[in-house]
Each structure stands twice: as C-alpha cells, then as structure tokens.
Design brief:
Strand content: 5-15%
CATH topology of the largest domain: Rossmann fold
Structural class: alpha/beta
CATH class of the largest domain: Alpha Beta
Oligomer: single chain
Number of domains: 2
CATH architecture of the largest domain: 3-Layer(aba) Sandwich
Largest sheet: 12 strands, mixed
Strand order of the largest sheet: 2-1-14-13-12-3-11-10-4-9-5-6
Shape: elongated
Number of helices: 18
Radius of gyration: 36 Å
Distance between the termini: 145 Å
C-alpha cells in the first residue's frame, strides 16, 4: 500500500510503500524550510492507517495534531497541488519526562542499564567500571536499583567496603566514587530524580489505536533537549526497549510503530564510539520487529555513514550553501542519491522553496528510486499551538493517567541498605558504649575490689586471731 504525502510538478504522487517504512528514513533541511510540516503530514498518514507513532517535540509545535486544521493561509498551496483538504484531528497522547506538559515518563535505573547510565553521567572508563560493579553487587545482593537514591546508597556501601569489593571486582577508589556522586547530584538538579523512577514506561502503551487511528505519542522535549546527552540516550533506550520487547515480524505490510527522532545530531554528536555502535546495531535489527525510524535533522551529514546507508527513504528540504562546508555537504548528499537526468540535483537542493523537497524512496524490489522534486501536502491538523488548558485536558482524559501520574517507591537498594547501615551503626555504637563503660568503670571497680579484698583479709585475720586466742586460752587453762 502507498502513503501519498505530496505531488511533483507533473501532479504525480510522492508516495512511500508502507512495507518499506521499516527500512527507515531521513528528513533534513535548514531551519524554516518545512521539516516540521513534512513530519506532521507523515505522522497523520501513518495514524490514519492505524500505525502508532512516537515523536519528540523539541519546539512545542506538534501537540496541535490533536486539533483539526483550517484553511487559513493554505489556499495557494492547495490550489497549486490541486487537492481538496479534509481537515481533521488525530488521537494524541502527551508525555513529559518532567511531568509538566504530559503524562510523567519514567525509567528505572535497572532498565536503563550501566552503559547508558554511564553515558548520561559522562563517566570515564574507570568510573564506568564502578557503575558496573554497583549494578553487579545490587544484582548479587537481590537489591533493586530503581532511582538515584538507590544508586547513591550502593555507592556509599561500596565506599565503606571498598577493601572487600576491590578484592572481588578490582580496585575501587574513594576518588572515583566521589566523582560519580558529584555527577549524580548534577543529574538530580536537571530532573534526573524525577525521571529515574517508577512506574517505568511500558512499551505496549505506545502501540495503541483509537477509533481505528494509530495513537500519536508526543514526547515534550523542550526542556529535555537542553540536556542533549539525556535526550539522546533516553530515545536510544526507547528504541532498544522496542527491540527487546517486540516479536520478530519481518517485513509487514504495515509497521507496528514509526518513530521520529528529531534533532538527531544530538545523538550522534554527543555519544561515545560504544554508544554509536549500539545505535547502529539497534537501527539494523529493529527492522525485523516492524519498527520504522525517521531521523530529522538540519544537516544530513550529522548522520554517520553507517546509519545513513540504512535509510531507505530520504526527504531533503532546502540546504543552504553559505560556506565551503555547506557546499561540500550538498555535494556529498547529492552523490548518495540516485540521479535524475532531468535536473541538476545540487542546484535544485539549494533553490527549493519552503515546503518543496527532493525525494527518494525504495521501490517494490527494494531499489532506490531516482530523485524527484515535489511539494509536500499541508497537514490536516492545526498549526495553532495548544493552550495550557487544552494540554491538561488531553492528559486528564487519558486512560493511562491512573497508571502513570503518581510515582511508586518500592523497597529497593536505598531502603535495604538503610536498614543495614542502621544495624551496623547500632552494633558499632553498642561496642563503643561497652568500651567507654569499661574505661569509666574499671578504675573504680578495681579500687573498690581492692578495698573489699583488704577488708575481708583483715577481718579474716582478726577473726582467726580471736579464735586462736580462745582455743589456746582454753588449752592453757586445762593444763593449769
């Protein structure tokens, strides 16, 4: 089946085969060239086919997918495209890591894992090793590692028992633990104490329909994007969880889910080589789970070649050539596309109007199609941002509200170690009190003991003398 999202100059459809959506895609272009509109039009088309969508809203202009649009200022484009507009709204679920503009979105530390946590904290190899030890000890001791309180508690436990821990797992220093704790405190200040908590997001809650339309899950990222590492790693965790949770389905006619990764450069510019390898692995493997990923970015060269080569659909809005680097970018992106002899691709990329794009996708055999230039449809939903009351209404009316609105605080490493610390402190205190008591009582006790012993001895001697005198005196009298 085809998804139509625009037309070329000959009024032929720009379309993507639904069975190729899990081959992933790219939407790129300079600021103000139409990327957001393209994203919205595709998300709407997917939703209408019952395909759920996850997208990050970094500018706060996507939640209006929940409102039907109007014709204001769209007459010229509609006339040029020769289409009639059927404006409509779409089912939306709002999420927010900070719980301000959507349902709270939480992840436990155990589910995040030591690698991604170390990346969020920006740890070096030695410090990452300590985090691995913390997770290993928590697992061996049967302690849940859920939130930052748990992490701080187990780091304290390691510090107080570093000799024994070092014998078992390798050298651990107080300096490394202190450095990690400082970064944990910084993460708390950025909202990490709210984000790393329970209940953790259930992936199945993202893959739903309402009134035969796929739910569009919108992650409010205006604040989250200010912490690029947390933003990118959280989205990578989300992809990883989708891969872990979903069953193998191969190439379906309709994907189970389509994921839009806006500001994709934040992932690739802030990650280590190990993290990038994980991204590449997930992007390759998640296809078989029926999940499509669209990377959205200003500069297509922000996407590493290993990832770019996995992208079957490319929608390129205007790229500007104001510097030698930008000129090289246009040249390189043009060389990676199947040419169309009817126009100069490099020149067209620089001269696209707002809303126009260069487009290439995969045909039925999986081969890239020659590039075409076309105009993207207007969205069916509104351009007007939601009011605060409208956003609250969406959140309050969600059937997931009861499940996610309130946080949980199960017994975990923090509580278990607190009990252990208290017990150890009680034992130590009792031993110290005993020593103090012995020190304060011993001189006095010894003196009294000596006095008593001396008195008893004296008394015994006196009694003995008296008895002896009495006996001897009787004997003497007898002899007399």
């Amino acid at each position: 089946m085809k998804i139509v999202f625009g037309k070329n100059k000959d009024k032929e459809d720009l379309s993507i085969l639904t069975e190729k959506l899990n081959q992933h895609g790219l939407i790129c272009g300079a600021t103000g060239t139409g990327k957001t509109v393209t994203l919205k039009v595709l998300a709407e088309a997917f939703s209408e086919l019952g395909i759920p969508v996850v997208l990050a809203d970094v500018k706060g202009d996507l939640s209006n997918l929940s409102k039907a649009g109007v014709m204001d200022n769209l007459e010229d484009r509609v006339e040029e495209l020769e289409v009639s507009m059927d404006f409509s709204s779409f089912p939306v679920e709002l999420w927010d890591v900070y719980g301000k503009e959507g349902l709270p979105l939480r992840v436990s530390l155990s589910e995040l894992g030591p690698l991604l946590l170390s990346q969020i904290l920006g740890l070096n190899d030695t410090q990452e090793g300590v985090i691995n030890i913390a997770f290993r000890i928590a697992d061996s001791e049967g302690m849940l590692l859920l939130d930052l309180k748990d992490l701080k508690s187990i780091l304290r436990y390691i510090d107080e028992n570093k000799k024994e821990v070092s014998k078992e797992y390798g050298n651990v220093t107080s300096q490394s633990i202190s450095a990690i704790l400082r970064k944990v405190l910084l993460l708390e200040d950025q909202g990490g104490d709210f984000f790393f908590n329970e209940p953790s997001l259930s992936i199945t809650d993202l893959i739903r329909e309402k009134d035969s339309k796929g739910i569009i899950n919108i992650l409010s990222s205006k604040k989250l994007v200010n912490n690029p590492t947390m933003y990118s790693i959280f989205l990578l965790w989300l992809l990883s969880e989708l891969y872990e949770e979903l069953e193998e389905v191969g190439n379906r006619e309709f994907p189970k889910l389509v994921f839009f990764f806006d500001e994709a450069h934040l992932l690739f510019n802030n990650g280590s080589r190990v993290l990038l390898e994980k991204v590449l692995q997930v992007v390759k493997l998640i296809r078989s789970k029926g999940v499509g990923v669209f990377f959205v970015t200003q500069n297509p060269m922000d996407i590493p070649d290993e990832v770019s080569s996995q992208l079957g659909t490319k929608i390129i809005h205007q790229l500007r050539a104001f510097s030698p680097r930008e000129i090289r970018t246009i040249k390189e992106i043009s060389q990676g596309l199947r040419q169309n002899d009817s126009f100069n691709l490099e020149g067209e990329i620089q001269n696209l109007r707002t809303g126009e794009a260069i487009f290439s996708t995969l045909d039925e055999s999986g081969s890239p199609t020659p590039v075409v230039k076309g105009l993207i449809y207007p969205p069916k939903s509104s351009f007007v941002p939601l009011t605060l009351d409208e956003s609250k209404e969406i959140v309050n009316s969600s059937y997931l509200r009861e499940k996610y609105m309130d946080s949980l605080d199960r017994e975990s490493a923090y509580e278990l170690l607190a009990k252990r610390f208290d017990e150890e402190a009680s034992i130590v205190k009792a031993e110290e009190l005993k020593k103090i008591e012995e020190k304060t009582k011993s001189p006095r006790d010894n003196m009294i003991g000596k006095m008593i012993s001396s008195a008893v001895y004296s008394f015994s001697r006196q009694v003995g003398r008296d008895i002896a005198r009495g006996v001897l005196g009787s004997i003497k009298k007898t002899f007399r």
